[in-house]
């Protein structure tokens, strides 16, 4: 377990990374894929080749010592563990981390995956660190002047990443050159950057501030483009509160903004209007982030009241009631933990998590194929529902599955 998990990120349906107040990055892998990636890691180290051809310049960063293969130790079963043994057998992820990375000297605040299995972490120790699942050591350390609250790989070119810091500076880093390529500084009386991300497939970089502003910059030159004041027009939330998360909507020119007024807002980037405001969760002081389901149909968010909340991204209750189309008070809350739910996310392409576990007729997952190469699109629609991964203040991580009913299942 991590002491107070502060960030939780998945890569495809295979890997899950977590980090928190124990200063450690942990990577978890699905049981079906453990052998494949363990063998890949051994081959990479035996040949001493770069983990990714597009990152040849990164090979010089890794140490000359090979990483020995990892093997999951068999669990020690005692009389007290007998009741949980079956639950452990049904768990989708290997119970021991595939990788455990140490190097940060303070709590991890954010995690980002690249498409080539590289991982970035940001921390209160004023650094970002680069890792790869085939290596045990840190590949590179990027120093900042203050806490690094947010990081994100460029969606099109993961030789670059974005970092936001409490020093008020947004930086675009060149990883092979190990230096800042571009930077800009937030203006105003409160310059603290508390969230950052790319939107419109990397066209713009956006930061969130402690006083409730979302500021957009062109990624090409990191020049100011526009801004949004994230707050209500009246009432107690008319003063901007800290932005704790920014996420792009899949396939749409919209961004989802989470803030410390216990609201999640969806903005249309075409005209900067508020598309919908989601109420229900409690987020008064935490760095909790809302995010989308892979299809963009649902929004999910952790909460300080020990629940996680789910909304439909676009509801239709306004058609038969007095409800407003741009407000959503219609949510489903699930009591998941006995502490603050610091992170709640949908697993992308969740078929690999619950296929073969809920339906014996489901097609088998290929033994030697990574990612989802062995699973057809038709089987995805037929055999799976949604998978949700949550984490809390005490370090507990849970996986929830909601498999689709069979067409022949009784009501």
Describe the structure.
With 411 residues, this protein is mainly β. It is built from 4 helices and 28 strands. It has a 5-stranded mixed sheet with strand order 17-18-19-20-24, with no helix packed on it. Strands 1-2-3-4 form a 4-stranded antiparallel sheet. β19 (263-268) and β20 (273-279) form a beta hairpin. The model is unreliable at 52-83 and 358-384 (pLDDT under 50).
Major pleated sheet: 5 strands, mixed
Rounded mean pLDDT is 81
| Count of alpha/pi helices | 4
Helicity range of the residues?
Answer: under 10%
Using the alpha-carbon principal axes, give the shape. globular
> What fraction of the residues are assigned to beta strands by DSSP?
35-45%
- Number of separate strands: 28
Secondary structural class: mainly beta
Unreliable stretches: 52-83, 358-384
Strand arrangement within the widest β-sheet reads 17-18-19-20-24
Distance from N terminus to C terminus (CA atoms, Å) equals 38 Å
For the CA atoms, what is the radius of gyration? 21 Å
């Amino acid at each position: 377990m991590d002491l107070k998990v502060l960030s939780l990120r998945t890569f495809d349906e295979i890997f899950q990374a977590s980090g928190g107040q124990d200063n450690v990055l942990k990577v978890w892998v699905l049981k079906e894929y453990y052998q494949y990636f363990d063998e890949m890691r051994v081959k990479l180290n035996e040949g001493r080749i770069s983990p990714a051809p597009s990152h040849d310049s990164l090979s010089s960063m890794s140490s000359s010592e090979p990483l020995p293969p990892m093997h999951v130790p068999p669990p020690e079963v005692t009389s007290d563990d007998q009741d949980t043994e079956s639950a452990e057998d049904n768990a989708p992820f290997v119970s021991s981390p595939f990788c455990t990375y140490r190097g940060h000297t303070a709590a991890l605040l954010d995690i980002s995956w690249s498409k080539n299995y590289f991982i970035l972490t940001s921390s209160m120790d004023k650094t970002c660190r680069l890792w790869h699942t085939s290596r045990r050591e840190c590949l590179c350390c990027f120093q900042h002047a203050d806490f690094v609250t947010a990081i994100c790989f460029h969606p099109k070119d993961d030789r670059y990443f974005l970092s936001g810091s409490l020093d008020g500076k947004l930086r675009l880093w060149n990883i092979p050159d190990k230096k800042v390529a571009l930077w800009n500084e937030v203006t105003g009386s409160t310059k603290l950057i508390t969230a950052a991300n790319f939107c419109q497939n990397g066209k713009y970089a956006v930061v969130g501030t402690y006083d409730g502003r979302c500021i957009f910059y062109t990624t090409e030159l990191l020049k100011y483009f526009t801004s949004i004041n994230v707050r209500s027009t009246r009432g107690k939330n008319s003063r901007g509160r800290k932005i704790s998360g920014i996420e792009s909507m899949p396939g749409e020119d919209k961004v989802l903004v989470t803030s410390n007024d216990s609201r999640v807002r969806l903005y249309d980037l075409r005209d900067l209007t508020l598309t919908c405001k989601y109420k229900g969760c409690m987020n008064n002081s935490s760095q909790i982030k809302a995010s989308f389901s892979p299809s963009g149909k649902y929004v999910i968010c952790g909460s300080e009241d020990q629940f996680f909340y789910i909304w439909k991204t676009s509801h239709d209750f306004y058609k038969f009631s007095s409800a407003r189309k741009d407000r959503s008070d219609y949510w489903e809350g699930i009591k998941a933990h006995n502490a603050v739910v610091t992170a709640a996310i949908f697993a992308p392409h969740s078929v690999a998590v619950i296929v073969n576990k809920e339906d014996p007729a489901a097609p088998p997952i290929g033994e030697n194929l990574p990612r989802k190469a062995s699973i057809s699109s038709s089987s995805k629609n037929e055999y799976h529902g949604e998978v949700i991964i949550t984490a809390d203040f005490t370090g507990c991580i849970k996986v929830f599955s909601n498999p689709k009913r069979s067409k022949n299942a009784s009501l």
